[in-house]
Amino acid sequence: MNKKLFTEYPEQDERKYYDLLTEQVTIRMDNLYKDKERALRDTHTKSHAAVKGILEIFDFDEEAIKRELSDRTALTPSQVKEISIKQGLLSSPKQYPVWLRFANGAFQIKNDYEADTRSMAVKVMGVEGERLEQSYESKTQDIIVHNSVFFFVKTIRDYYGFFSAVVESKEATKKWLFQHPRQFLALLKGTGEAPKSLLTQRYWSSSASALGLKPDFDPDQTSVVPVEYPAVIKYAFTPVSPQPPHDRIAFQSRPGIPKLPFGDRAKALGLDPNQPDNYYRDDIIQSLGKPDAEYCWEFGIQFQASPNMSIDDTTIPWKERESPFFTVGRLTVKHQIIDFEKQYDFCENLRFSPWNGLAVHRPVGCINRLRGVVYPVVANYRQQKRGIAYQEPTGSETF
Known about the structure:
10-stranded antiparallel sheet, 29% helix, alpha+beta
């Protein structure tokens, strides 16, 4: 099938897997937390810290970006002409307060030296506009990014197979991965790096979002028939120096991490594997505790430039030589005192989902459609376990 630009495509029997995965996620949460007082997330379980920041959207030159899109991508002039960039969060220059949740990607709390992805969930506050019907907050936009340019699971059906294996046992999980070598290799590649600091790490959305909706858009048609959008983009946060000209910060590994099998890391670092290693939490607290602390990321968007840049298969990264990122803002984090114990409940109670935000930034692609089904199950389970009503953050919270 010849696929079209800016179009997401349904999977065969997709909605059947929604029900199957909802059941499996509930079983997983019961297995982990039914007899416990508190329920954590089923993935990205280990929180490092909740950090305050500012996201500044620039008064960027839309026409200059569109000229560069014409020069540097396969998009035709007529395709570029129809794109409207200044929409939603990007519509006008403004500074927004944000909460950031830094976390590991694993299904359980592990030592930080172990192989894993690292995530940064961004909650932008004070965002006005028509919202997605799945939103659970009234004036926020969530952007979830992690330090891998791709996601290792290809389809909803594959995710059901993988997650069912996780629910069953570690042995079943290993068996599934060995039976899917391409996705196993992607998992190993995506979890192999151990960054020096999460405050100087690059993060990607890996999954895509719409930039605008067509006048005849019908949300009930998604996951049923192909749905076309005016444009489709991905996000990235790239670490830069806080001082002009804001040079990019190169990747650095955690000191002492060798290129050895993952099980040898604790020994190489001289750590007791029976003692918790909270390296990233400690680094965030200590780094931001310095009076002159300041860390910055360029906020960039990357356009799908050809149908070969898959929207639905997130195991395929969009190559920057085929479509560069355009800087539209800057995320800044400055000195703050983080008392992890005092802020722990707030950090854990925060909800993040790409489906919490503005309609014009609608998440697209199979993994995002799946998130729209699974994330509410986990969030509702966590809240019911605590017996609390969820409160939308404002950015004025103190600890």
